Amino acid sequence: MALPLGLHIALQHLLHRRRQTLVSLLGVALGVAFFIAISAMMQGFQRDFVARIIDVQPHIIIKDEVREAPMQPVERAYPGGAVSLRGLKPMEEVRGIRGARNILATLEDLPGVHVAPALSGNLLLRFGGKDLSVNVTGIDPARERKVTHIEKDLLSGSLDALYTTSNAIILGEGVAKKGGIRSGDLISAVSPVGVVLKMKVVGIFSSGITLMDNFDTYVLLKKAQVLQNRTNVVNRVNLRLDDVELAAPLAAQVERQFGYRSEPWQEQSRNVLGIFVIQNAIMYSTVGAILIVACFGIFNVISTVVFEKTKDIGILKSIGFRDRDIRRIFVTEGLIVGVIGTVIGWGLGWGLIEFMASLHFEMEGFVRAQGFILYRTPVHYMVSAAMAIASATLAAWVPARRASRLNPVDIVRGS
Fold first, then answer.
1. Rounded CA gap, 305 and 299, in Å?
2. Confidence band (pLDDT; 50, 70, 90) for 199?
3. CB of 74 within 8 A of CB of 85?
4. How far apart, in whole angstroms, are the C-alpha atoms of residue 291 and residue 337?
5. Structural domain boundaries in the chain
6. Contact predicate 66/259, CB 8 Å
7. Paired residues of 197 in beta bridges
């Protein structure tokens, strides 16, 4: 079956300059391949991190603090005035969430919301001549398992052991390793207010988030209140939602209703999520630079063809080819390079992903992993194809437009 004349001419032009065409194809293919591989790696890490954060931590944390300090009476009396306050001392008050029971009851009535009280503080653990400074969180195990998945992260022991064992404590894996502590050991716990208790390790957990594993510990809520000398006080209310996307609006609603600072998971991880934006910008910039270099190759090939085929263009116009027909021929050349380069790039990208998936290594950092965390999706292939084909077509448009403007009379006279 004979090809259309315009397509036949475009293919002949590309085949006439095989080496340059091959280099342009390779540039497009590498741009597509690197985009697919880097996107899979970046988004794999980002999605895994967000999943860990959503899985391990509560979706909303209500804290015993306010977002902005209350205005002083003189500032309310003279708003906008030239007021100077000196020697101001903060009011001494007992920290904690007031009316915590009413807040818990109100929130538990909301559909799709699970609530758990907690008391967080600092603790000094002593074992075998070592002192470890850790964060301690007092929890109600029955409610805690509804707002976090700490129970499934336990390497040994169980949350219910906090009920059945006197002065029980659960340690993060990093805490246990630093102190040489094993499940069943007795350790000394010293609180900032001077309370000292002998506690038994009834469990060790590993969340995969290094910061938590190295510093977090859990005890029974009543035991934390004894250690902190804060009877019947809670300073955290943790919420978990069936729909994580509702965390931000619900947190704003809770803060307006009760006045306490309410942080959704997006706000708690704002710094890290901001880093993801920078990562994506670097990724798109790198791949964009590769595609731009490939586009220069396409531009160079087609510009050279236009220069070499000036007489042919004059002949084509003299036998009835219009400007848009000439443009179509050279734009088709760029489109062919873009499509074939994209297909080759898909294969290279798939190969890169499978190669990275086969690599296994221990990676320590904010999040622990054993090898690259990859996210495979057809979207990466579609986006890379759109970018490559659009770039290749755009690179061919400029010389194609110049070719279509050539005057056949001037070409014949010049020859």
1. 10
2. very high
3. yes
4. 12
5. 5-53+272-412, 60-64+95-263
6. yes
7. 189
